[in-house]
């Protein structure tokens, strides 16, 4: 039996353990140590996870795709069911199915059973709701036990990232760890020193933790609502004066965890009724087809990919053939900043709160350690770096630092 660290992320998941050559991440899919947090239930056969799940869906196979599952923890959705073929599955069961696959693949890589785990968790699963936050942790723990982990504990994700960074330092320093993930943004101020790694109690080295429920999927949603959903009638009027298309339909279609709500038949009929009442029925017709053909996830994947291309190249053309042949929209860095700038500001504001909680000025921070996929967004990165302008900026493993740190913590706690 061995211990592992499990980073169940909104967008990607990793599992790490300590072997003869130190901490390592398990290959979870085709040699890759990151597994997209997605699961696809085909009409027949076993569920698919990760890239295989998304490929099956995009390829047109009939079934149900679910992604961003972590975002339902701490919300009322966790107690609800969703249609999967001819049955309905609870979200707990869906998450358990996904994580059981991760555990099995991790055990295969480790060469032994995994029965102990340190689970990563955001500083806040839910903003401003201590009861909801505690409930989210409890539910995740229950799921972990259900899939066979006999011993489990939790560690804040930015603290885990700091353990990965600590392997690189030679002296002592104060580090601000910024973990900007798919669903949350988390910060910790930690006293880092190589000689501290084996201490049983690191409480005195953790000066402050802060977090906010804003992450990469929120950037996807805002970009979709601003640049794509107007092409489906978002914001357009109905023929009856003073009425417009219901906003909630577009919010659900732009939100990973809510897309499946639209696939209930009744919603499709409602949209067709709205199409007849719409001042621009051709646009609403695109919305109707997206829902009837269950292409919401494909649209969300296209928006996410466009965001990444803008981050890398400054501009892109988003092909919306999934909605209508020849339809597309141009998106550049200015669009991304204009429509998601407030999210970057919300993220950066938590750094100020973290510094205040630690009783420190920005100048006291020696190193700013960045991890998480959304640190690749230039305006997010700039907003974070502006909060500690004198600190050295250290690039962590974008998707692997937390999992590696959790593996280190699992070894320390469970041996």
TrEMBL record:
Keyword Nucleotide-binding carried by entry: yes
InterPro entries found in the cross-reference section: ATPase_NBD, Hsp_70_fam
Gene3D superfamilies noted in UniProt: 3.30.420.40, Actin, Chain A, domain 4 (3.90.640.10)
Position of the signal peptide: none
Keywords on record: ATP-binding, Nucleotide-binding
UniProt keyword ATP-binding present: yes
GO molecular function: ATP binding; ATP-dependent protein folding chaperone
Protein name: Hsp70 family protein
Native species: Xanthobacter tagetidis
